[in-house]
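Q: Start with the shorter request: fold the first protein.
A: Done. Sequence, then structure:
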Amino acid sequence: MEKKKQHAVLVSGQYLLPFILLTSLFFLWGFAHAILDVLNKHFQELLDITKTRSALIQATMYMGYFVMALPAGLFINRFGYRSGVVFGLLLYGIGSLLFIPGQYFVSFNAFLFALFVIGCGLTFLETAANPYVTELGAKETAASRLNLAQSFNGLGCICAPLLVGWFLFSDTQEHPNSVAFPYACMGVLVLLVAAVFLRVKLPEIKHEAEVDKAGKQVGLWSHKLFIFGLIALFAYEVAEISINSFFINYVVEQQWMDARYASLALSFGGLSLFMLGRFAGSWIMRRVSAERMLFWCATGTVCTTTVVLLDAGAVSFVALLCGYAFEAIMFPTIFALSLKGLGIHTKRASSFLMMSPVGGVVGPLLMGLVADHTESMVWAFAVPWVAYVVVWLYARKMLAVSSPR
């Protein structure tokens, strides 16, 4: 009996190969997201722009999610998961290669356009991969399975600041065109992965329509917990992306280290804990409900961000790093819980959930504005604090629903 339970926790046997292939995609988009956090500080120094304007780096790419999420959902509904993955990889690769002609313009706007194309590609990838992974096994273990796959997203997040940050902040690099090289390498790799997926068949998963007592089909927007989950996921994106965007700024302002070593601290400190948090979270959720896990992790992020706001010196830095471990399970867990019981609406719901990274537009801009007006990165952490409180409220609601008295 125990072996059957463990087998169900991992993934259904017939879906093992698709699960392994899709997990590789999580690494690729984790890498793409984490590069932005290095570019933010890099362009501030080399183009002499404000924190608010540098936030356009994140804003432009995440705007791609908002613009392309619904079209991606329609595309995947029509052509299937594999077509969504391949098309997303093509856009991702083309956007990366656009950094090569962009170097001749030496224009901030040219780089922003390339990032927007990458964002559109990542939208297709995530809209297809996230819900697909939740379906590759028992429903009760969907959150644990998605957390396991998302752990490799954390690995990509570690590698990006480590490799690209060391390259961009090298003493020999004095020109913003240097960003073209890592993006060109990434573009070639992504297009090769697209070629692999063209030759692999991903089995489609069929859903049945949900009907009410009168026999009428239940609409997506009748699911109030899905709506709350959509809001919570947006709030999480506001918090996570804004903190990542200004991590290097915060560390440098506190005079703990320079930008080059701050990028390493982001990799080996925050993002390493983020990855380990997802692996640990996936393991723990095989024994503890996803709702309870989300509640305690949300409590942890509210507490750690409060310590950062208190400006307690080195203690605040430790709290900031610990926050990465607590927030690690939030996106996949909220995503999986929000799709729970949606049946035929799953693909469409996924496209709406993938609009949530527009929080990457709102969060960094708000945080940049607060930092510029207060001339302090400490006060700017009020933005992610409010966002984490929203996630905490959602987690509390889900815990109450799953454990009725």
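Q: Next, the second protein, separately.
A: Sequence, then structure:
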Amino acid sequence: MIRTFLFLVLAATSAQAADIKFGVVDMSKAFSEFYKTKDAADKFKGNVDKAQKEMNDRWSVYKNLMNDMQQIKKDASDPIMTPDARAKKAAEFENKGKELRALEQEIGEAQNRRSGQLKQEDMQIRKGIYDEILVVVREKSKSEGYDFVFDKSGMSLSTVPILIYYKDAVDITDQIIVELNKNAPASGAASAAPSTDAKAEKK
């Protein structure tokens, strides 16, 4: 990524500055302020909550099994219990133990599997949203005649922004956000648009 960036900069400086039009966009800000991001986050949270409930239900069964085992152990310690009855309780205790261990393994596998599914789902959702934003950025860049548009929120491996300083480059982030939210539902559009009071103050 850094090599590509340096190549573009060198290519730009080798041409006439007046003939090149630079733009920058904060992809992170565009992502966070895109109405579809919140909608997707709400939906994803619902899936996470559902998965958590499923796990809680499984752990509830596990807890009940443990309680059963403790009760069986307590019953087996009764001094007036006959040897045969105590042997039956021991066998029952062992069977419950096998059931408990099997359920514990099942829960562990289910948690890992569900966690992987949710992670994959989150990645797909984010990719889909970023792909939509990129389409808008490219269309805007083309219609406005930009030669290069850089993501100023991009980070290098050292967590330092790749684009540290830029001159004579137009920040089109707000324009991109407006374009992204132009078809937002009424509630989302209302929150994204300036309020009447704010407009009055500007006047």
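Q: Describe the second briefly.
A: Confidence is low (pLDDT under 50) at residues 188-203. The helical segments are 2-13, 27-33, 35-76, 83-144, 173-180, 186-192, 196-202.
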